[in-house]
């Protein structure tokens, strides 16, 4: 690595040193309480998957370049040069961490490994070593935001094709559009994923609740966040924020995508609209009596997987349970408490990397598979696209014999006429 | 030899305290000067957040749940450390407030040092085993070794007086020395530098000085940062 590259990388590093990051880099006592926190360590027993080991990779570079101590007496903290080998290790650490923040619950100080790993991901962007798929997907999203007129017609046509299926699930009033798009003054902007499964059930429920809603032109998922790229994350986010402001909606509802929800929620305080997850919105409809659900369709034992970004990191914990209470009588909890639920093993962009990470995803999530098996449930419900994909992969790999379902689809399927 | 004693007992103490105080102030000022981070909260939330942050900071409930033995030694260590600070303040002058529970100076009948020594040895030895061994870096050992040496030599003086009726150096001698340092008119009473246990005092203060100098630049800063960090996690 030449000096200029290193200097550029260190500038990127410096840009991430806010107060929280300094806390995290200064305080770790390497006490080892986090050892069992990581599902990858619990499943595979490799030291490199321990949270403290992961952050020490970054901390050593921090000591070397940002602390006088590391210059005067580098061996004291094993301060370390930023070079190709270090970058290799950072890649391994960053793209084996799902950012679930379970270790943050364990840490006596509350060190956020995901945030420290964001430095690793940013440095990897600096040397063009982010996974190509993620970069491509993120840039496509950004491009769609820029030249949105080009995509518009194709998108609208695609949506029209879905409407018949929405009506099949819920017959809306005569003359009403099954999937409204681009409606100024709508109360709620629904941001879905690119896929019928994310749009059709949601639309049916909105129509059943007589919501004044409109579908966003853009997909919710933020590949910039998976890459750990603040600039791309912001650009992808802004597409939706601008649309919401243009249409003057009161609420932005994010589909079942944990990362999208958390990223949007974090920026919400500065926006004129409220941010909700579709799970929260569905729970609200039930509470307000705007939709009614029938229990008959779900007699078997049901369990719920708390998506990390939605539950532990997003605070949506009671609502999915409230909804499930209206769907089934046989509900069993998966973890002793939601904040200690094992990650599915697919977060942080690992699922988006597909086959490339499949072997690691399966091996590192043995504890998740065991946890699911122990519930004895037949139906495994979740409210996150990433988790759903990963849990389905686990189901095949470990032959768990469960039906993996989206909570929103179950709500749509159980809709009853008032 | 007397010159060496003098250097350790007077100028080095001043330097150590200066580095300790100024170091901490500058380090904290630098950290708190950084922009306020975004929300880092973990859910479910409990209110009031600051009270739960205090709870997390001083009782580390997750450690109790995951590693009860470590928790036991950690709590014992931190309580003893607090008593140790009080004990040293009383070596400067008597403080009525601390005498709510009447005791002889140095408090704890020698057991504070003994408990600290055991805890420190536990912390040190657990680092020799995997996986904590793989996580540790040299400073983790240096810091513990430095504390072990400081506490050993300090405790021995206490133990000798308490348990073996050693009376060549009295509490008054320590007070005369400490108080003279505090009012910047350093004095070394004859008993402090020339009794059979003087070498222990000198070594205790020497390692203590090193610890104070190292403190602001080490993870010992968690003493100040743990509370704001836990507050951040509680939201």
Give the helix/strand layout:
The complex is a heterodimer of chains A (418) and B (235).
Chain A: H1 3-15, H2 19-27, H3 39-44, H4 51-66, H5 68-72, H6 84-94, H7 102-106, H8 113-126, H9 132-146, H10 148-169, E1 188-191, H11 196-208, E2 213-215, H12 223-227, H13 230-247, E3 251-254, H14 258-267, E4 274-277, H15 278-287, E5 292-293, E6 302-305, H16 318-325, E7 331-332, H17 355-364, H18 366-375, E8 379-382, H19 385-397, E9 403-406, H20 407-413, E10 415-416
Parallel strand pairs in A: 1-2, 1-3, 3-4, 6-7, 6-8, 8-9
Antiparallel strand pairs in A: 5-10
Helix pairs in contact in A: 1-8, 4-8, 6-8, 9-13, 10-11, 11-20, 15-16
Chain B: H1 2-9, H2 11-33, H3 49-59, H4 61-66, H5 68-92, H6 111-126, H7 132-135, H8 138-163, H9 171-182, H10 190-194, H11 198-214, H12 222-234
Helix pairs in contact in B: 2-11, 3-12, 5-6, 6-8, 8-11
């Amino acid at each position: 690595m030449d000096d200029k590259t290193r200097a550029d990388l260190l500038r990127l590093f410096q840009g991430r040193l806010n107060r929280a990051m300094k806390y995290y880099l200064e305080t770790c006592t390497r006490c080892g309480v986090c050892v069992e926190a990581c599902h990858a360590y619990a499943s595979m027993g490799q030291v490199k998957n321990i949270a403290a080991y992961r952050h020490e990779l970054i901390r050593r570079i921090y000591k070397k370049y940002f602390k006088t101590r590391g210059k005067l007496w580098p061996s004291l903290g094993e301060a370390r040069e930023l070079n190709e080998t270090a970058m290799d290790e950072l890649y391994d650490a960053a793209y084996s961490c799902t950012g679930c923040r379970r270790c943050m619950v364990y840490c006596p100080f509350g060190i956020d490994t995901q945030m420290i790993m964001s430095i690793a991901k940013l440095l990897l962007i600096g040397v063009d070593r982010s996974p190509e798929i993620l970069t491509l997907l993120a840039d496509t999203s950004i491009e769609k935001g820029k030249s949105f007129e080009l995509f518009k017609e194709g998108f609208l046509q695609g949506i029209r094709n879905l409407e018949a299926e929405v009506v099949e699930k819920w017959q809306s009033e005569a003359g009403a559009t099954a999937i409204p798009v681009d409606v100024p003054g709508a109360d709620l902007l629904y941001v879905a994923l690119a896929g019928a499964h994310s749009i059709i059930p949601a639309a049916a429920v909105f129509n059943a609740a007589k919501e004044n809603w409109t579908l966003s032109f853009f997909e919710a998922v933020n590949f910039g966040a998976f890459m750990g790229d603040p600039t791309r994350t912001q650009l992808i986010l802004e597409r939706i924020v601008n649309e919401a402001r243009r249409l003057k909606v009161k609420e932005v509802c994010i589909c079942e995508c944990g990362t999208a929800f958390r990223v949007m929620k974090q920026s919400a305080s500065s926006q004129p609209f409220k941010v909700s997850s579709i799970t929260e919105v569905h729970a609200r409809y039930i509470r307000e009596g705007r939709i009614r659900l029938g229990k008959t369709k779900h007699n078997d034992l049901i369990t719920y997987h708390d998506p990390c970004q939605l539950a532990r990191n997003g605070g949506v914990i009671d609502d999915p349970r409230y909804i499930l209470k209206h769907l089934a009588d046989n509900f069993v909890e998966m973890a002793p408490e939601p904040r200690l639920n094992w990650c599915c093993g697919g977060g942080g962009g690992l699922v988006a990397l597909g086959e490339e990470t499949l072997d690691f995803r399966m091996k590192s999530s043995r504890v998740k598979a065991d946890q699911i098996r122990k519930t004895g449930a037949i139906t495994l419900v979740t409210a996150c696209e990433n988790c759903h994909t990963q849990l389905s992969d686990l189901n095949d790999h470990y032959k768990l014999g469960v039906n993996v379902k989206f909570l929103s689809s179950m709500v749509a399927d159980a809709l009853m006429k008032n | 030899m007397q010159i060496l004693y003098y250097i350790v007992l007077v100028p080095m103490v001043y330097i150590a305290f200066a580095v300790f105080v100024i170091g901490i102030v500058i380090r904290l000022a630098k950290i708190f000067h950084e922009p306020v981070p975004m929300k880092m909260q973990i859910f479910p939330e409990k209110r009031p957040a600051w009270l739960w942050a205090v709870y997390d900071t001083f009782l580390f409930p997750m450690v109790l749940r995951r590693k009860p033995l470590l928790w036991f030694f950690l709590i014992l260590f931190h309580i003893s450390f607090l008593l140790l600070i009080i004990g040293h303040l009383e070596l400067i002058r008597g403080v009525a407030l601390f005498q709510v529970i009447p005791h002889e100076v140095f408090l704890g009948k020698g057991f504070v040092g003994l408990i600290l020594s055991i805890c420190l040895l536990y912390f040190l030895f657990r680092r020799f085993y995997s996986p904590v061994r793989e996580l540790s870096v040299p400073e983790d050992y240096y810091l513990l070794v430095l504390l072990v040496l400081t506490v050993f030599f300090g405790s021995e003086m206490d133990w000798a007086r308490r348990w073996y009726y050693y009376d060549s150096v009295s509490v008054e001698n320590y007070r005369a020395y400490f108080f003279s340092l505090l009012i910047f008119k350093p004095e070394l009473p004859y008993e402090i530098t020339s009794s059979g246990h003087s070498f222990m005092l000198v070594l205790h203060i020497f390692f203590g000085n090193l610890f104070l100098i190292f403190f602001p630049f080490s993870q010992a800063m968690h003493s100040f940062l743990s509370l704001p960090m836990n507050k951040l996690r509680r939201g």
